Hints:
alpha/beta; 21 strands; Aminopeptidase; 4-stranded antiparallel sheet; 18 helices; 8-stranded mixed sheet
Amino acid sequence: MRFKHLSAAILVSLASYSAIANDEVASQLAEPQIANTYINDAILPPAIEWHGKSEALLLNADDEWATPFEKNGLKTSPSYDETFAWLDKLIAQTDMLNKVSLGKSPQGRDIWMIIASSEGANTPKTLAEKGKPSVLVQAGIHSGEIDGKDAGMMLLRDLVLGGKSELLDKANLLFVPIFSVDGHERSSQYNRVNQRGPVNMGWRTTSNNLNLNRDYAKADALEMQHMLRAINEWQPDLYIDVHVTDGIDYQYDVTFGYNLPQGLSPASYAWLENDYRPRIESALTSQGHIPGPLVFAIDNTDITKGMSLWNASPRYSNGYGDARHLPTILIENHSLKPYKQRVLGTYVMLEATLKVVGEQATKLKSAIKQDKFNYQPRVTLTWKDAQQKQGWNFKGIGYRMEKSPISGNNIVRWTGVPKLYLNLPVIGNTVPDISVTRPSAYYIPPQWTEVIERLKIHGIRMTRLLQPTKMKLQQYELSEPKFRSKDYEGRQTVKTEARLESIETEMPSGTVKIDTQQPLGDLAILLLEPQSPDSLLQWGFFNPIFTRTEYIENYAVEPLAAQMLKDDPKLKLEFATALKDEEFAADPKARLRWFYQRSPYYDDQYQKYPVLRQK
C-alpha cells in the first residue's frame, strides 16, 4: 500500500510539469539548497538552481557589447549614470534608437525614454506617421524591482546589433529604463529583504516617499505627471509595467495579468486573454520559464484557502489602463527566483510581445477603438468579491508551519520542493456593487483649479463656459464623511454617503464642462463620481467642503427658533416629533443646531459636492 501511495504522489507531481521541457523537469526536481549569492540568501527559503534555454541570450562578460548586468556575473544592475552611459553608447551606433526626456524628477534627474523604431522616429508625430503599433515598457516604477531595465537593455542591444531588427518592422518600442529615478539612486543591498538580487536595489518610493503605483488616479508625484503626459503624447497601444512581487513561494517565475472582462475595456481584455497570453506563455515555456497569472494568496499561511483574482482600481497601472482603454499588463516576476532568471524571463516576454503586437496590430487597435467608443449607459464604481467558477491547479511550493520562539506565532517554512495544489478556489472582486448612470457631462466651477489641472494632465478633454449660464443639473448632497485616521500616500482620504438631487442653478463664467462621450470619458467618471474609490473626492481634493466656516450664537438661535415655530405650524410638528428621540431631546446643542440647519442663515453649500452632473 505504501508503494501505491508513493506512485500516485509521483504521478501528481510530474503532472504539474507537463508544460516544461524534460531537462527543466530534472532541474526543478533537484534538491533545493540555501543559496549564497546575495547577502540575504541565508534568511530566504531554499532555492532550486535554474538553467533554461534563454541563457543563450546572454553575452560573455568580456564581449564589447555586454551590458553591465552581463559583465558583473548576472548579479548586479547598473546605477543611473552607468545605465545611460551604456545606452548612449548603443544609441550612437544606430539610427533606430533615439532618447528623449519625459521631464525631470524632484531631485533633478531626467526620466529618459528610448524610442526604438525602424524609421528612427524621435517625435510622437514621426512615430505615428507609419501607423505601426507602439509598445510602452516601463521599468523601475518601484525602483528596487528593476528586472525590466536590464532585460530591456539586452533587447535594445540585440535589436541593433544582434540580428533582431526585424522586430521593429511592424511595431515600435518605447522603453523607460528607470521610472522612479530618485528612488533608484537610493540604492543599497539591504533595501528588499525578500528579493534575490540584484546586489544593490533601489528604494520602493520616490524621493517624496510616494508610491508611484498608487498614484495614477491622483497624479500627485511629479514623475507620474510626466508619465501621463507622455502617454497622451506618444499614444502607445500596449503598456507594460514591470514589477517584482513578494508574498508566498511558488514555481512560477514570470507572472502577469491585466484587468478583467467585467471592467471598462472588455474588448482589450479579450485580445489580451485569447490572443496575447497564449503566445507569451508559449514563448516563456519554450525557453525554460514557468509563466502564470498574477499570484495573490488569500492567506499566505494557508494556500488551500485559495487565490485572489484582482480587478484593480485606477490608482494602479493596470486599473488605470482599463479606465483609459489602454491595454495594460502588470508583470510580477517572482522575488525568490534568482535575478538572472527573472531578467531573462522578462527579455523573452518583451521580445515575444513585439512579435505578437506587430502581427496583430489591426486586431489590437480595433479592440482599443471599440472600448474607447463603447459609452456604457451604467458604470460600476465598486465591486464585491465572489468565488469564481473555475479553480486553479496551482504550481506551488511545499511548506510546513512551525512555532516561532521569536514571535510566538506560527510561521511558514517553505521547503523549496515543488508541489501541485489541485483546484484551489479563486476569489475575485467581480460582482458589481455601486454603479451610476452615465451623465452626458460634468460641470466643475472654475475655483477648483487643482482638480481641473489634474484632469488636464490625464488628457481629458474639456471646454469652458464663456458666460454665466442657468442650467438644470444634478448635484450630490454628501453625508456621514469618514476620514482615514492616518494619511495615505500623502493625503487624508475620505469616504462619504451621496444622494443625488435635481437643481436649477447658474454656473459662473469659466466653469469647465467635461463631456463623457470622449475616449477618456470613462476615466473622467471614475475620477469625478464621489463614491468611486479613486475619485478625486475620496483622495481629498475636495476636503474643504466638509469644513463648516459659518456659525450662529446660541443667544441668536433661541429667538430665531421661537419665531420659526410661531410662523410655521408644520415645523412645530416636526420639532415635536424630533423631541421623541430621548438622546436628541437631552442634547441642547443638537436642538439648537436643528433650527439653525433649517434657517435661511445656514450654509447651503455645506457638504454639497461642487461637481455637477448633466443627464
